[in-house]
Amino acid sequence: EKAGYDHFMIKEIHEEPGAVRDTLTEMDDVMRVVKEIGEVERVCFVACGTSYHASLVGKYLFESILGIPTDVILASEFRYSARALTDRTLAVFISQSGETADTLNALRSANSRAKTLAIVNVLGSSATREAQHVLYTRAGPEIGVAATKTYVSQLTIIYMLVAAMGAPELIEKLEKVPAIMEEALGDEDNIRALSSHYSNVSDFFFIGRGFSYPTALEGALKLKEITYIHGEGYAAGELKHGPLALIDDGVPVVAISPPGPCHDKTLSNVEEVRARGARVIGVGSTLDEALRKEADDFIGLSPEVDEVLSPLVYIVPLQLLSYYVSVERGLDPDKPKNLAKCVTVE
Ligand code: M6R
């Protein structure tokens, strides 16, 4: 059932273009749900882990494109933060499994105070029965403990939601994503080769600004889960407020820098870490000569992908990087120690 792949994780990464394509077929459902929900003054995303990172992208989209104030709360922290939910608040619960205890508990407590929407991959799961509104990601079953294709499907539904709530021009851009992802997957041999330089390091940093900040966090989470290497995601501008003290000779820094308004500032951060000896893995447009020049290793992606769309595409090489580092270290990426696919305890 691994269809010739060594692990479910790599099979599922290869299924990402199809997962985005299938999720895009849900547009009519998204439009229906947006109509049913009615007026929204605030949005509040609630989720854990990878689904939390998808939610962070949601915040950048809702605020920068729709101008709707948006909070993102870890489900396990939801009860400790006194939030003023009202009947004009849309509380969005994102969960691959639809069974995560922290997320379900938060959903239960929000149901009487706000409009609730669950974005879920598993049909008929608890979250789909308890939320007022439901949207499905069409990623198909995900076996690997590390979320991969379900992350890009969650992002796709969030973009579609934003499109339906007032930014229809996003749809045309989204339709190009599966083909661009296929191109990114075509660079697998390069990523496998460069992974071998990083299998013995003890720390990794991932940096990005704006839409690339959640990508940095998600890249670091994947690395931790399946390679057991300490990985930290940072907003690139935060480096100088502390973590720069940890940058030393040979410390790998993955710099996520798609074309767009944040690009030049991220590039200055790359220069800062290089000056302190970091080994930089640049992830940017194939046409980005400046980043390529600063980087020790370079992963090039389609120049068509701008910052707004980048979370969907730039995560693909980071998942591949973690996968190949894990394999290089002789680990089983499908079954990381201490972790379960579905966390049903608080
Ligand atoms: O099923 P959920 O999306 O609610 O799960 C949330 C997290 O437990 C999950 O994303 C976890 O962080 C993954 N192992 C990440 O790869």
Describe the overall structure.
The strands form two sheets. The chain has a five-stranded parallel beta sheet, sandwiched between helices. Helix 5 links the parallel strand 3 and strand 4. Helix content is about 45%, strand content about 15%. It is of the alpha/beta class and about 350 residues long. It contains 14 helices and ten strands. The chain starts with 7 loop residues before the first helix and ends in an 18-residue tail after the last helix. The structure holds 5-amino-5-deoxy-1-O-phosphono-D-mannitol. 5-amino-5-deoxy-1-O-phosphono-D-mannitol binds next to helix 4. 5-amino-5-deoxy-1-O-phosphono-D-mannitol binds near residues 95, 100 and 339.
Question: Keywords, please?
Answer:
binds 5-amino-5-deoxy-1-O-phosphono-D-mannitol, Glutamine--fructose-6-phosphate aminotransferase [isomerizing], five-stranded parallel β-sheet, alpha/beta, globular, 346 residues
Strand content: 15-25%
Helix/strand-derived class?
alpha/beta
Strand order of the largest sheet: 2-1-3-4-5
User: What oligomeric state is this?
Assistant: single chain
Number of helices: 14
Tell me the helix content: 40-55%
Kindly report the average pLDDT value.
96
